[in-house]
Amino acid sequence: MRPLGIDGAWVLEPEVFPDERGSFHEWYRARELREATGYGLDLAQANCSVSRRGVLRGVHFADVPPGQAKYVTCVRGAVLDVVVDLRMGSPGFGRWETVPLDDDARHAVFLAEGLGHAFLALTDDATVVYLCSTGYAPEREHQVHPLDPDLGIVWPEGLRPALSPKDARAPSLAQAQASGLLPSYAACLERYERLRGLGG
């Protein structure tokens, strides 16, 4: 796994084996993830999202602790996946990085607890599956507006993003910061060390 420019995020670039029948690849390897991060993914929930072209989901994150780590790939079509450092006090606070995910290269992204996640569907029926370290808990889950100009995520031109009502009402990064919604970097580091200590 290759680390991204945001601490706590990695991309898997698997070898894909095509033949006349189709293709095969390993999209998740527990040992490789553990070697990269120092701890494993305690799988609590697996989600599948199907989006038409132009749908923008995120930026989503969860309270830490416990937070929610995610392991994300696109099994049909293509999306632009985005990781955002929302950890207050992090050296990279407010930075974001994009990773194209599609059904050709078959890349996958892991993001640790405390990081924000979003993606934009580049094709119709873009199908994203992701493994989560904790289950859905609406009282612990939050959003930052993905079109916040201060955040400044550069989305592809020629697409008019379609947001859910909940994401469209999301606060800006500054508003989320002022209201105390964002996780602290110290709490995230403590969480990572605890997971490493537990071996999971």
In one word, what is the shape? Answer: globular
Task: Characterize the largest beta sheet: strand count, sense, and whether it forms a barrel.
Answer: 6 strands, antiparallel
Radius of gyration: 16 Å
Strand portion, in percent?
Answer: 25-35%
Tell me roughly what share of residues is in helical segments.
10-25%
Beta-strand segment tally: 13
Rounded mean pLDDT is 96
Which H/E pattern describes the elements? EEEEHEEEEEEEEEHHH
Low-pLDDT sequence parts: none
Classification by helices and strands = alpha+beta
Distance between the termini: 18 Å
* Number of alpha- plus pi-helical segments: 4
Strand order of the largest sheet: 1-2-10-7-12-5
Structural summary, described in words:
There is one protein chain. This protein is an alpha+beta fold. It contains four helices and 13 strands. It has helices at 30-37, 165-168, 173-178, 185-198; strands at residues 2-3, 9-12, 17-19, 22-24, 45-51, 56-62, 70-76, 78-85, 96-102, 108-111, 115-121, 126-132, 141-143. The strands form three sheets. It has a six-stranded antiparallel beta sheet, with no helix packed on it. Strand 3 (17-19) and strand 4 (22-24) form a beta hairpin. The radius of gyration is 16 Å and the shape is globular. The protein starts with a strand and ends with a helix.
Structure summarized in a few sentences:
The chain is α+β, with helices and mostly antiparallel strands. It has helices at residues 30-37, 165-168, 173-178, 185-198, and strands at 2-3, 9-12, 17-19, 22-24, 45-51, 56-62, 70-76, 78-85, 96-102, 108-111, 115-121, 126-132, 141-143.
